[in-house]
């Protein structure tokens, strides 16, 4: 299991990013405990936790909602490729 912290950091917020659990270990509450612990420590220092998930990642969204997180905003991301030479 892994998590990356602080890729995005607007004033008063810290992002929890790339939370992933190996499929063999899913369903044990590991990701939930990790997210809650990291969010707790952010709150202790005065920040709020910020999470993001692709709209198609229903599993992650369900976990985040069970943990008390709520949808604040939908964001559209785009990718641009340069032409090959």
Automatic annotation (TrEMBL):
<feature type="domain" description="N-acetyltransferase">
    <location>
        <begin position="1"/>
        <end position="85"/>
    </location>
</feature>
<dbReference type="InterPro" id="IPR050680">
    <property type="entry name" value="YpeA/RimI_acetyltransf"/>
</dbReference>
<dbReference type="Pfam" id="PF08445">
    <property type="entry name" value="FR47"/>
</dbReference>
<protein>
    <submittedName>
        <fullName>GNAT family N-acetyltransferase</fullName>
    </submittedName>
</protein>
<dbReference type="InterPro" id="IPR016181">
    <property type="entry name" value="Acyl_CoA_acyltransferase"/>
</dbReference>
<keyword id="KW-0012">Acyltransferase</keyword>
<keyword id="KW-0808">Transferase</keyword>
<dbReference type="InterPro" id="IPR000182">
    <property type="entry name" value="GNAT_dom"/>
</dbReference>
<dbReference type="InterPro" id="IPR013653">
    <property type="entry name" value="GCN5-like_dom"/>
</dbReference>
């Amino acid at each position: 299991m892994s998590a990356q912290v602080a890729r995005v950091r607007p004033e008063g917020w810290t992002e929890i990013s790339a939370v992933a659990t190996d499929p063999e270990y899913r369903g044990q509450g590991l990701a939930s405990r990790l997210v809650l612990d990291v969010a707790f420590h952010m709150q202790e220092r005065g920040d709020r936790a910020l999470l993001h998930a692709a709209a198609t990642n229903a599993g992650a969204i369900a976990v985040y909602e069970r943990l008390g997180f709520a949808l604040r905003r939908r964001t559209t991301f785009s990718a641009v490729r340069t032409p090959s030479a």
